[in-house]
Specification:
The structure is a homodimer of 493-residue chains. With 493 residues, chain A is mostly helical. Chain A folds into two domains: 3-122, no CATH class; 165-491, Orthogonal Bundle (Neurolysin, domain 3), CATH 1.10.1370.30. Chain A contains 20 helices and three strands. Chain A has helices at 3-30, 37-55, 58-69, 77-93, 97-120, 123-144, 150-158, 164-189, 203-217, 253-272, 288-302, 306-319, 328-335, 349-368, 376-388, 414-431, 434-441, 446-455, 465-473, 480-491; strands at residues 224-228, 234-238, 241-246. Chain A has a three-stranded mixed β-sheet with strand order 1-3-2. In chain A, a hairpin with a 2-residue loop joins strand 2 (234-238) and strand 3. In chain A, helix 10 (253-272) packs across helix 11 and helix 17 (434-441) packs across helix 18. Chain A is globular, with a radius of gyration of 22 Å.
């Protein structure tokens, strides 16, 4: 066995521990009874601790150094894997195992506190947890180090190679266009009736439609499933095991359906990673900004398109008789209406990124130390007012709406907008191939998925996100395709 | 911290690993998608291996020896915990970690093969797996060592202090009485109409009734849940987290209901163990023969009683309108009818132990090397014919019906009949207290549960099963109470 293979064996061992933690995390959100929380926190902390101890062990470092000493061709998978493992080692090595365990236990409790705080709309219940997790994040940023600002150290953990200043510049450039598109889109949508759906859409029937749609776009249920949770997510809990979740609004089936298409987009990326490389960088998604490109592509570019509903509206009307009589044109206008609203995950495409910009700004200030936890609700509401022209009526619909901070996920939000840009750019590139766009026009997405499999999924983490985008689309991420998409969809130009 | 406390910390660490394995095992049976099997086997093997390596480590032995060096009062919890941990260490230490990992991986695959083999009723699909697992069992018996025969080494892993020869002698003594009671009960039951229930009992409504009943007898759903599996079980996957499973027959709601009462009996034992001692012997059930006493007590002594159905038949008829008009007397005669049947888990009380005796004999011969795996179906069918007077029409209803062998659980079956004896003896002792029997007559089982909590659950593994029975009932396990119960229930005397 070569040193490289020995290194891979260790990496796979680490992935057994971390994926086991993912099973427990999934279970916590889906089925775990309340009284189990305290012990579950211990289990998760233990698993994170063991994984981290192994990832930073002398044994791992020795294997890494030996593998680095071997000659692997410059652009080979082997070289890429070794390079990423070195990056990950350097990152992990700077964080003591004790801190990993403490943070894991703290997030298990913080998640439970967040659920409670959000339910009661009482920020004070969550504030001490956020304080603690912000402390961990700031400490980790110092331990990791950074050139520019501490937020860089967090952001680059989610988006390889990203820098806060560059992302901020990109967002600053985007913002005027986004704001003007959003305002005009909202204005134009005022002619679309707010209420289109009538009657009840039973959850069991939504499940049936969701499953049919997810299967038809390519999600593989022999290696995955869909469950119900308060906050939808996609989690890979092992090789051949990708789990999506959703929630049901019985007055509007599209909310769950678009949610499932979104998570299935994440899930198909995971299912398209090279299975034999599970646990290695080459078998792992490269970044959240690429991940989100897949979910947004299927949710929005496919799921809100004319071709899609031409096929699926009649089918939906078979499942939900109360849909009969709803015209395709009216339905499409309705699923693509824009309005300013409080909840990011329910926001339409035209206003979505404004939510992201707000969070990015607030997080950046928190991490810098410019914004105190106690002042987050007020800062949120002020910023919201300036972007959306309205103030959240309570923190449940304000700064308590997102799960991320309770999971310690500071530095994460920017990737949602990067995902929108990447998704639009990938989609428009793929659609330039006639056989892909012809098939998509007939609601056959197999050629599109095949293209994504080759250009994105199969690459794992062997390329930096910027290089992946360059190879797939001919250029780095730019706002061009995304803005064109928004203008075409919402402003008809 | 004393040496004892350090030892306990290590034991708790081991229990984090093993309970994590239980979460994954539960998930495998309930929700895991098919393609995940291969990797799940790796995860489980890894966790078993790590737990075993820690339980047999020099670190653990040193802590154990130090704790043994401390003076703890002879009958204290501390002394009992140290004693059991020494027993467990001696057992674990004799088995190499590699073997534990190999066996774990083999059982994950064997379980999947068993499901397939049973579905197709094709023993040949399962035979190579059984061969492999029997090999592991025989090897482990040799490594553990035994005074009498290799089966002792396996049996005592499930039932502390039990010896094959003594159990065999007990069963030999029981057998004539069991056979004669069974034959007479079956004869008498011929006057009970086979078909009493009409129409459909939808699974969703069965779930509702099951839950009400489980709650009413004392199962705590804030620390537990019920899911659906092919083979019902109860699994504790962490402190405060006890999970039951059941399956639904929509033509007969009692099958799932009695199953749930059975598993809830197991579950309430687990929920009654001292929570603060989770992971220590004093917080762990002592043996399967005691465990099964709890499940059989709630399923049969409570669940098939007149008092129980006096309350629950009217409630069931509210949930299932097709039950209206069914008379209590006829219903009771029907749920307590006896007949010779092929499937153990569906067998009535009067014939149940004959199934156990058969399996005990076959296993003992397999482990001894007197019966080849290939000859198991024929041996099973011959023995079945001689006990029940009929031959299983296929292996699905013969030697492929039980999950145990596929889990490597050889040496396990005898504890089912020990459980019946223990359950009857505990129940009859408790019922001698007027306040317990008066309450039970009104379908109030809180005093009975409180008695079991004190006499059985709270003891954990601090007493040997025989001593626990002696302290709780005044004598070791004897067939007396059980035979009296069977005669009273089935022969009216």
């Amino acid at each position: 066995m070569t040193a490289y293979h020995k290194l891979c064996e260790l990496a796979r061992e680490i992935s057994i521990l971390s994926s086991t933690g993912s099973v427990l995390g999934w279970d916590q959100e889906t089925y775990m009874p309340d009284k189990a929380l305290h012990f579950r926190a211990k289990q998760l902390a233990y698993l994170s601790g063991r994984a981290h101890a192994l990832a930073t062990s002398g044994r791992f470092l020795a294997a890494l150094e030996k593998a680095e000493g071997e000659k692997h061709p410059r652009h080979s998978k082997e070289a890429a894997n070794i390079e990423v493992m070195r990056e990950e080692f350097e990152r992990a090595f700077r964080i003591p195992t004790k801190l990993v365990e403490e943070e894991s236990a703290a997030t298990t409790h913080a998640k439970a506190a967040w659920v409670e705080a959000r339910k009661k709309s009482e920020f004070a219940l969550f504030a001490p947890h956020l304080e603690k997790l912000l402390g961990f994040a700031r400490l980790k940023a110092e331990l990791w180090g950074y050139d520019g600002e501490p937020y860089d150290a967090l952001l680059s953990g989610y988006e390889r190679g990203a820098r806060t200043r560059e992302v901020a510049a990109l967002f600053d450039k985007l913002k005027p266009d986004l704001v003007s598109i959003a305002r005009e889109a909202v204005e134009r949508s005022k002619s679309v009736p707010e209420k289109l759906l009538r009657g009840k859409f039973p959850a069991a029937k939504q499940q049936q439609l969701n499953r049919e749609v997810a299967e038809s776009i390519g999600f593989d249920f022999t290696g995955g499933r869909i469950d119900t949770t308060a906050h939808p997510f996609c989690s890979t809990v092992g090789a051949g095991d990708v789990r999506l979740t959703t929630r049901y609004d019985e007055s509007d089936f599209t909310s769950s359906l678009f949610g499932v298409m979104h998570e299935a987009g994440h899930g198909m990326y995971e299912q398209g990673l090279p299975a034999e490389d599970f646990g290695l960088p080459s078998g792992t998604a490269v970044s959240l900004g690429i991940h989100e490109s897949q979910s947004r592509l299927w949710e929005n570019h496919v799921g809100r398109s004319h071709a899609f509903w031409e096929k699926w509206l009649p089918r939906a009307a078979e499942i939900f008789p109360n849909l009969r009589g709803v015209k395709l044109k009216a339905f499409l206008a309705w699923v693509n209406r824009a309005e300013f609203s409080f909840i990011r995950v329910e926001a339409d495409e035209a206003t979505y990124d404004l939510h992201v910009l707000l969070r990015f700004g607030i997080e950046r200030r928190m991490v810098r130390g410019d914004l105190k936890v106690a002042d987050v609700p007020a800062a949120w509401n002020d910023e919201f007012k300036s972007l959306f022209g309205m103030t959240p009526p309570d923190d449940r619909r304000g700064c308590l709406q997102d799960i991320h901070w309770s999971m310690g996920g500071l530095g994460y939000f920017a990737t949602y907008s990067l995902g929108n840009l990447n998704g639009a750019q990938l989609f428009s590139t793929a659609m330039r191939q006639k056989r892909i766009s012809d098939a998509a026009a007939m609601c056959d997405y197999a050629p599109l998925l095949a293209w994504l499999r080759t250009k994105v999924h199969a690459r794992g983490s062997t390329l930096m996100p910027a290089d992946l985008m360059r190879e797939a689309t001919g250029r780095e991420t730019t706002p061009k395709a995304y803005l064109a998409h928004l203008r075409s969809r919402f402003l008809g130009r």
